[in-house]
């Protein structure tokens, strides 16, 4: 049988078209099934996205939180500013401090409310619900104790009566202790909300504290020294103190471990409290009066009447000046004290009413001007150290002897020869004494022990 080429091509083309159709139908069926499965997976993830909560609910909850955060900005910008203006217009300062202290906790309240409504919308169950409830309770406790912490400083005026008994630094310590107590109670409450027992932690910290105390003796020593400083009222903040070999300056703060003293050159010095409780501390700020102790020397040519005039003038100036303390309240002396090497000395011993350094310097300056005027008005003058030197002969009063150079050389040679001759004679004399040929002196009359007759 004979087959034409067209028949062969047709026979070969029919299977190819059927394969293409089969493949296309297969791919179309596979694509539809895959897309359907993928879409079902997306729906499943959207519905049971995180912990059984759909992503749509999560996004809506985030939107609720975002709305409350926007309201927080509006609340802070308008309402709180309005409240601040109202309290600023009042004469009472307490409401100003309270408004400033409570502004931050109040500004955080809309965020806490937003978190609560967002978690409530999610309608959680099981463990997520327990965690969300603990989170909301923790945020509420945080806001409450944060508010109490911020209110401690504005309400510290209630401790004014205690400040009459204790020092201001002691009151500051008490305020810090109250703040620390509020913070610790708040932390313990939040830990209890999350199921963490605080009692075992406290017991463990007690044992740990004993171990730390053995290695931190200096820390506790300084702490106890600081308490003793405040109880004994050695010094207070703002007072001028001096500790020999340690520091001199103004006290700026008294801490648990050290005291911050700023020197007069504005350099800060942190001194451990133990160094201030075990040594002598001079508190210049608690002086009742401030002393002036001068020695004024006048010239020896000053007469007796002039000395009396000077003494009376200085005493009159001090007693009539209201800047100085009267003699019945503090020591006051203006006396002729001694005859010094080159001056006659007056002693001026008095006290100024002011203890402020700048005012004290001004009073002392005025006294110096007055003393100078009194001495000059008396016709005397201030003495200065002097020394007199007495000479029997004054250099240059008699002519010097002139010796020619040759004569000076010859006299030098003669002196050298005489010196060598004396040395030779002394040598010979010593040699004669050593050979037992030394001449005995001739006996004199009466040397033989007789009566000389």
In brief:
This protein has 453 residues and is an alpha+beta fold. Among the domains are: 55-191; 217-285, Roll (SH3 type barrels), CATH 2.30.30.60; 287-377, Alpha-Beta Plaits, CATH 3.30.70.100. It contains twelve helices and eight strands.
Tell me the strand percentage band.
Answer: 5-15%
Based on CA atoms alone, the radius of gyration comes out at 54 Å
Mean pLDDT: 76
The beta-strand count equals: 8
Order of helices and strands: HHHHHHHHEEEEHEEHEEHH
Biggest sheet, spatial arrangement of strands: 4-3-2-1-5
> From the helix content, strand content and strand pairing, which structural class follows?
alpha+beta
Shape designation: elongated
- Low confidence ranges: 5-13, 422-453
Helix coverage percent of residues?
Answer: 55-70%
* Largest sheet report: 5 strands, antiparallel
Q: State the helix count.
A: 12
* Separation of the first and last Cα atoms: 211 Å
Oligomer state of the chains in this structure = single chain
């Amino acid at each position: 049988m004979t087959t034409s080429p067209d028949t062969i091509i047709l026979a070969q083309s029919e299977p190819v078209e059927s394969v293409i159709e089969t493949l296309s139908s297969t791919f179309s069926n596979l694509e539809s099934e895959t897309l359907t499965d993928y879409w079902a997976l997306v729906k499943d993830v959207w519905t049971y996205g995180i912990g059984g909560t759909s992503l749509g609910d999560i996004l809506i909850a985030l939107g609720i939180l975002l709305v409350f955060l926007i309201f927080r900005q509006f609340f802070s910008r308008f309402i709180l500013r309005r409240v601040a203006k109202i309290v600023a217009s009042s004469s009472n300062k307490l409401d100003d401090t309270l408004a400033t202290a409570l502004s931050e906790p109040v500004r955080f309240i809309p965020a806490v409310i937003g978190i609560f409504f967002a978690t409530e919308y999610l309608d959680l169950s099981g463990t997520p619900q327990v965690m969300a409830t603990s989170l909301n309770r923790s945020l509420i406790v945080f806001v409450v104790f944060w508010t109490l912490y911020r209110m401690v400083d504005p309400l510290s005026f209630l401790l004014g009566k205690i400040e009459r008994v204790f020092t201001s630094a002691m009151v500051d310590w008490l305020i810090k202790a109250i703040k620390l107590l509020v913070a610790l109670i708040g932390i313990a409450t939040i830990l209890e909300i999350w199921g963490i027992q605080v009692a075992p932690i406290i017991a463990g910290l007690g044992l740990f504290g004993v171990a730390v105390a053995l290695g931190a003796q200096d820390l506790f020593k300084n702490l106890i020294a600081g308490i003793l400083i405040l109880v004994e009222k050695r010094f207070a903040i703002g007072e001028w103190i001096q500790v020999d070999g340690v520091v001199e300056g103004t006290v700026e703060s008294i801490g648990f471990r050290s005291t911050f003293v700023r020197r007069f050159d504005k350099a800060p010095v942190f001194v451990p409290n133990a160094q201030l409780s075990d040594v002598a501390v001079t508190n210049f700020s608690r002086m009742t009066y401030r002393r002036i102790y001068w020695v004024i020397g006048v010239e020896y040519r000053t007469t007796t009447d002039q000395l009396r005039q000077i003494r009376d003038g200085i005493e009159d100036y001090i007693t009539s000046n209201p800047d100085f303390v009267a003699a019945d309240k503090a020591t006051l002396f203006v006396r002729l004290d001694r005859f010094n090497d080159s001056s006659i000395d007056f002693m001026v011993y008095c006290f100024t009413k002011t203890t402020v350094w700048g005012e004290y310097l001004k009073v002392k300056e005025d006294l110096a001007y007055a003393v100078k005027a009194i001495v000059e008005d008396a016709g005397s003058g201030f003495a200065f150290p002097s020394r007199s030197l007495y000479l029997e002969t004054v250099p240059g009063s008699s002519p010097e002897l002139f010796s020619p150079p040759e004569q000076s050389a010859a006299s030098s040679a003669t002196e050298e020869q005489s010196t060598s001759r004396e040395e030779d004679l002394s040598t010979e004399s010593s040699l004669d004494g050593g050979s037992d040929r030394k001449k005995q002196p001739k006996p004199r009359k009466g040397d033989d022990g007789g009566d000389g007759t």
